[in-house]
Amino acid sequence: EVQLVESGGVLVQRGGSLRLSCAASGFTFSSYTVHWVRQAPGKGLEYVSSITGNGDTTYYASSVKGRFTISRDNSKNTLYLQMGSLRAEDTAVYHCARDAAYVKFDYWGQGTLVTVSS
Amino acid sequence: QSALTQPASVSGSPGQSITISCTGTSSDVGGYNYVSWYQHHPGKAPKLMIYDVSKRPSGVADRFSGSKSGNTASLTISGLQAEDEADYYCCSYAGGITVIFGGGTKLTVL
Fold first, then answer.
1. Chain-chain contact of B48 with A47 (C-beta, under 8 angstroms)
2. A104 in contact with B at a CB cutoff of 8 Å?
3. Nearest by Cα to A86 from A65, A69, A67
4. pLDDT band at A7 (very low <50, low <70, confident <90, very high)
5. pLDDT value, residue B1
6. Helix ranges, B1-110 (H)
7. What is the pLDDT of residues A19-52, one digit of tens each?
8. Do B3 and A35 touch (CB under 8 A)?
9. Three-state DSSP state, B83
10. Alpha-carbon gap, residue A30 to A34, rounded angstroms
C-alpha cells in the first residue's frame, strides 16, 4: 500500500527555521517526482516545490524561492522541506504528493501543520 | 505564475449536473493536455479525480468527467450526490516540473 506520511510541523517564531519530512512506503520512491503543496487556513491549495526522482532537478514557487530547500534521501525513502526565514503567511498544512506523471498526483499525505507566530 | 482561475463556488441539487471551469493561459492549460482535478474534504488528503484532462483513475465514479477547450479546462459532475460536496481544485502542468493550481471551487449540494 502506498503511503506518504508527513511530520515536523510545529509552532515556530517568525524568522525561524524548520524541516519537514515525508516518509514514503509501498512504492519505489526514487522513481517518482514528488511535490510539496500547502494550504493556508481558509485558503486553497498552493504549490510549493518539486524534486525529480534522482534529486537532480528542483523547482520552487516564487513565494518560497530562496527561503525553502527541497531535498530527498532515496536510501531512506524520505522527502524533506527545509524552511527558513519563516513568515506568518507560511502558516499552513503542508502536504507531500507523489506525481505519477505530469501533474497526476495520485497519492497525498494527510499533511503536517506549520504555524508561524508573529 | 498566477493561479489558474476557478469560480469560488458552485451549487446544485441532488441529481443535477454542474460544471467547474479552470482558466489558464497558453503556457499552462492551453499548452499541454495535462490537467488534473482534485476533490478535497477539509482535514483529509486531496483525492485525484481526473488526470490528463479527461481520464479517470480507477475507483472514481463515471459521474465525474473532464474536458478542455483552448485555455479553459472543465470538470463536470453529473447526478450530483451529497457526498460530492467538497472543494475542487484544478492543476496544470506548465513545463519542466512546474505545477500550477487553481484557486479552488467550493461545491455545495443543496
1. no
2. yes
3. A67
4. very high
5. 65
6. none
7. 999 999 999 999 999 999 999 999 999 999 999 9
8. no
9. helix
10. 10
State the best of B97, B98, B101, B105 to mutate against chain A, taking most chain A CBs within 10 Å.
Answer: B97
> Could you give phi then psi for residue A29, rounded to 5 degrees?
-55, -40
Phi-psi region of B104 (alpha: psi -120 to 50; beta: other; left: phi over 0): left
Q: How far apart (Å, rounded) are the C-alpha atoms in residues B38 and B6?
A: 13
Tell me the three cell numbers of residue B100.
Answer: 500550477
Query: Cell 489558464 belongs to which residue?
Result: B24
Q: How far apart are CA B72 and CA B56, in angstroms?
A: 19
Question: What does the mean pLDDT of chain A come to?
Answer: 96
Average pLDDT for residues A50-76, to the nearest whole number?
A: 96
Written as nine digits, the cell of B46 is 486531496
Asked if the C-beta of A37 comes within 8 angstroms of chain B's C-beta atoms, the answer is yes
Do the bridges between strand A112-117 and strand A11-13 make them parallel or antiparallel, or are there none, so unpaired?
parallel
Nearest CA in chain B to A41: B42
Which residue in A has a C-alpha nearest to residue B57's C-alpha?
Answer: A106
Please state, in angstroms and rounded to a whole number, the distance separating the CA atoms of residues B29 and B36.
10
Question: Which stretches of chain B score pLDDT less than 50?
Answer: none
> How many beta carbons lie within 10 A of that of residue A92, not counting itself?
22
